[in-house]
């Protein structure tokens, strides 16, 4: 898959350089994430990455309670993700949720599949970053210690989302932002991590992705 992606320059996926930045961020967290929800699955590269990281982080303690839910709107891509996940041997960890992001979030919560998320990855349409973040707040999917990673917040960008996060959030959900740079890339990732109740710290990663690490909600 890596060779195919590199030969097709117009493909927007989670690059290896971004993965290394995110791995280091997640490596420092205690406890390590177990429940991951991502919005925007595309080819399944990031979903496979999260599944592999869960196996890496929980190699000694076991994978009980570990799960990745990748939400993809496009039915064709959802099927491609399933085939790639199966090929990677991660079907027991990664589940594809097909449909609009807002509907998928509501379904996961209302059907009792997910109570709260340890990590949320935003990688779908940028104009949905803020509405879906607020929906997660409304559904109480964020908890103390939740981490939010938002890809490509510099280009094409999600200015309303970044304004909201950098302003500290609202109501019971508060955020704080910090930027990390991955020099190999030109985009950026925004990551936020939920650290303690009613207060969050945000870490923004610049370099092909701006990572917003959600630290509190």
Structural commentary:
It is a single chain. With 217 residues, this protein is an alpha/beta fold. It has a single domain (2-215), classed as 3-Layer(aba) Sandwich (Rossmann fold), CATH 3.40.50. 35% of the residues lie in helices and 27% in strands. The chain is built from 8 helices and 11 strands. The chain has helices spanning 2-7, 16-27, 45-57, 75-87, 101-110, 129-138, 153-157, 159-166; strands at 35-39, 67-72, 94-98, 119-122, 147-151, 169-170, 173-174, 177-181, 188-196, 199-206, 209-215. The strands form 3 sheets. The chain has a 7-stranded mixed β-sheet, with helices on both faces. It has a two-stranded antiparallel sheet with strand order 6-7. A two-stranded parallel ribbon has the order 8-10. Helix 6 crosses helix 8. It is globular, with a radius of gyration of 16 Å. The termini are far apart. Residues 1-12 and 195-208 have low confidence and may be disordered.
